[in-house]
Structures are given as C-alpha cells and as structure tokens.
Amino acid sequence: MSTPVLETENLVKVYGKGATRFDALKGLTFEIHEGESVAIVGKSGSGKSTLMHLLALLDEPTSGVVALGGEPVTALKPKKVSQLRNESFGFVFQQFFLNPNQTVLENITLPLKIAGMGKSERNRRGMEVLEQLDMADKAKNKATNLSGGQKQRACIARALVNRPAVLFADEPTGNLDTVTSEIVEDILFGLHRDHGITLVVVTHDEDLAAKCQRRLMMQDGEIVAEEHGATGVHA
Amino acid sequence: MRSVDVARTALGNTFRSKLRTALTVVAIVIGSFTLTLTSGLGAGVNKYVDTVVAGFGGSSQMFVMSTGASDAAPTDGPAEYDPEAAASSGGMFGPGSGGGVLTDSDIESIEEIDNVSAVDPMVFVSPDYLETPDGAQYAMELDVPANALGLELEAGEAPGEDGMELSIPAEWLTIFDTEDAEQVLGETVQIGISNVTGEQTAVEAEIVGVSEEALSGIGATPMPSRELNQELNDLSMEGYEGQAQNAYTMAVVDVDDLEANEQGIKDALTEQDLLGLTVEDQIGAVQGVIDAVSWVLSGFGLIALLAASFGIVNTLLMSVQERTREIGLMKAMGMSSGKVFGLFSMEAVVIGILGSIIGVVLGLGAGILGNAWLTGDGGPLGAVAGLTLFAVDPLAIAGIIALIVFIAFLAGTLPAARAAKKDPIEALRYE
What we know:
heterodimer; A: alpha/beta; Rossmann fold; 6-stranded mixed sheet; 27% strand; B: alpha+beta; Cathepsin D, subunit A, domain 1; 4-stranded antiparallel sheet; 13 helices
C-alpha cells in the first residue's frame, strides 16, 4: 500500500495538570490513506475534535507523532506548520465562518490570499471551484445573503480552492436541515468519489458516518472500534 | 499573504466599522491639526525673522559696544572722578545715559583685531525738525545709516553712502498730501539741527525712498544717508570743546568669514571691555523664544496624539475581540502569526495615515487662510510689512505624518500582538 497521507503514532493529548488533569487522547495509532473517506465518530467529550485538531496540525500533541505524507510534522516550526496547513488541508466547519461583509468569491479565495497568490489567479481559481459547486452565480453576493445550504457550499468551495490533500469536515451538516444536509453530504462524497479527495469527517451523526468507507469509533480518548465499508453511500 | 494584500485587507477592515474608525480618526486629526498649525506658525514667524535678519544683510557684520559702564556698577561707595572714564561714558551722546560709548582709540584697537576688514563707527544725531518745501515743520528722530540694509521699501531705494539723501516712512506721505509713494521721490526737504550752543542750522536733503515699518522697528523713522548723518553730526558738534568730541554709541564691524572668526573677535573685544554682537546674537534670542513657544504648543498637539493613540488601542482591541473567529479561521487556514500581527498593526497604520493626512490638510488650510486673513490688507496685523505667521515646511509636514503613523503603529502593536497570539482552536470555538 502507498504511504499514508496522515498517520499517527501513540498520539497523546493531556489537558491540565494534577487534579484537573484530563486525558483527551490516550495513545492513538492509525493511518489514513490517500483517497480514503474516514469518519471519526463519538459523543461529545470522546476526544474526536481533539483528534481532528491534532490531525489538522491546529494543535500539538502532548506526546506522539503526526506525520503528513510520511514526514513527521511535530518538530516543525510554527511558520512551516502554518504553510503545510495552507497547502495541504481544507476545512469545512459546522458554523461556516464566512466573513459576512465580503463577497462569496472573496470568502472562498481566502486560503489562496493567505498563500500569497495574485488577485487575478485567485479569482480564476475561485470561480472554477464555484462553478464546480453550482455557485458561480452567487460569486458577487455578500456572504450574509446566502441560505444555510449555500453557506455550507461556499465553505466547501473555500476548502477546495487550494486543492488540498485532505479535506477536514467538522460536523459539516450540524447546522443544516435534513434536506440541505443530504445535498451537502452528496457534494462531499461526490468529491470524494469523483475527484479522489481524502475526506476526514468528524461527526456524532451516525447516518453521515455510515456513508464513509471507514469509521473510527471513539470513546473516552480511545478508538474503541473500527468499521469498514460504506453502508449508506448511494449506489 | 502578499504585502499588498495585507495592506488592502487592512484598508478594507478599517472601513468595516465606519463610525468607530471615524471617531478614532477624529482624535488623530485633532492631534495632527494642532501639530501642523504650531509647526507652521513657528516656521512662519521664524521665516519672517529670518527675512528681517537677511534684511540687515550683515551676515558678515558685528555690532560692537562698550561694556565699560556696566563694569563700574558693583563698587563700594561713589567712584572717584576720572576724566578719561567720564569721557568714555559721556552721557549726552549715548542712547541711554548708562551705556558706554566708543572712543577713537577703541575704534583703532578694533581695527587692529585680526580678520576685521572695516570698522564703521555709528553716530546718533537728533535733528530738531524736518521742513517740507511748503514750509511746514515736523518733529523728527533719525535712524542710523547702518540699519539701511534692514529697510523694507515701498518705493525708491535705501539711502546710500554718499549724497544728502534720506528715506521717509510711508506714514509720512501725508505731509506731502499724497498716498502715492512714487510721488515724493526726489522731493527736497530741509532738516534743522541745533549745535551745542543752541544755534539752529538747516541742511537740504533729497527723499530717495519710502519705507514700511518692519517688525524690528526699522523704517518707522526717516533714515539718512551716511553723508547726511555725518553732516548733521558735524553741525551738532559745532562749538563743542569738551573731550568727548569723537564718541560713538556703536560701531559696525565688517568681519572676514564671520562664522570662523566670530569667537576669536568676540574674545579680542572682551579683552578691551568691548562687546561684539552679531545679527544672529540679537535676533537669535527672539527666535529662541518663538521656538520655545511653538514647542510648547506642539507639546499640546503631542498630548492630543497621546490620547488619540489610546483611542487606537481601544478601537483595535475591540476589533480583535469581535473578529476572534475570523482570526482563528485565518490562522487555521495557514496564516502565520507574523502576518496576523502585520494585518492588525497595518490597520492601526491606516488609521494613523488617514488621521494625519486629514489633520495636516485641515491644519494647512486653517494656517494659510488664517495667515491670509491676519496679515492681509485690512487684517489685524496687515500693517506689519512682510509678516508671515504661517509657513509650509514640507519636511516638517512629512515629519508630522511620519511621527503620527509611527505612534499609530506603536498603539497598534498591543492589539496586534493579542490577535497574533490567538489559538486558532480557541478562536474558532469563540461565540
């Protein structure tokens, strides 16, 4: 098998000290391969968000290693880590985090702006992604004027615009109604299926998790079970 | 993130909360307005003083007086009479009874000092009257010819070395029943003077110039040519047989390369109980006062800026708080802490640039208009010839803008550092 995109070894995260010590992650070791769709499932407090933050290099583990493309990143300088995040990851958040004052196009090209890309190239790439998600006609709209589903689609566009190796989705349907959730799920898994994007979904939604190829069930900072096979993917 | 994008984003963010930004900018504007006005005022008045100094022309001249009289002050009891000393402090010719006078021997010793190229003793004469061609007589005081270089002329030219010439102040035009200064040029007047025995004689003199009164006072009285002055002096001394025949209140000394030799000559003069003052020495004190006043006023401007800088801190701290999630998002998407810091300090700089430019423009406008109104025709200070109260000094303006932008940047560092320190996870969780 090829080198995993992401792998962890004995990942430990501890918050606090002494009496307030809380072991959020208790030594996790697993791999995520290119083109996989992985769900990290668990109740709140199970450590699934902490795990995603560590995988996405947003946080540093207390001990253990996270490796991206076979290279351990824990020892890298913050600036280099920032750059890796910018180049390698896309994020879809539950609360969208769109800047209401900016247009959709400005919002979704933010990662490219951070990367230091010129404006015309940014906009070209941005439009490309918006077209892919049928959002091109909303490019000039202010982000506040979008519906919930459109907002989440804008978020996905923003996550895709830098052509990431891994797309992290943190409760991507948490704020959406059932119908819109399904549309967003279709988009996410369509991207996974048609474009081979590696998808890491953090959720407590069993239905969403069921659509992933692999599910890591978490409880009290440990992976208690691992399931394979997408049970709910539309055939 | 490219620098141009940082700048553009900062600019955009500054206008996101328009009212708040506007209020913060107003505070900066007040500071920069004050600074522009005070520095312009200082520059303007100093420029005027400079033109007055330049008017004296005497950048190579030194004015020499006797210090003899003041040396005599701290003695016990009445000093014994000394005919020599009495002659050198001869009261009747000095401008004040206490001031010492220069004698011929003083003049000779000044001439012997190195680098002194010429010594021109000055005599004050006190004529009795000036008589116009139609016979009317007016009381008059004469200025000394050495001041001729400082004349601000409305018409004609300054009285020169030779010829029986004089200039009259513009106010005196009324005695010729005219308002046109050109008309009186060439008119002949009689100047009457009494000698020591009380006998009056008159000499004829031609009007060659009409002067305006400068801030220095020069030009407020008629000024004779050297020849006329000497002639009047000779007339006034007729019949005098005392020892103080040749006593001068002051001597104008021409110096080769004044800058290099100033101190040496002053030292040499001090040895002979003489005091040498350059034009700069005399005017420098005035400029010192003007500078001090404009610095004090600028101090108020700086205090206003200090207060304004807290406004920036406050505004940006609020902004950082409000945009916590946005900061978190940018950091999650790979924006480095350094760039986040740069973005927020740039916003402070934008506020500083806005405030300083608006303030400078307003300050320049107020200064230029105020100057035009105050010193223009019919203004409260319009009578003072050549007076400028406000001058634009591009270097000072650039300095003010740079200073304010720097202060704004400093004020922005605290909020910017706070923004840069935000943990993306915490920031994204922030509600």
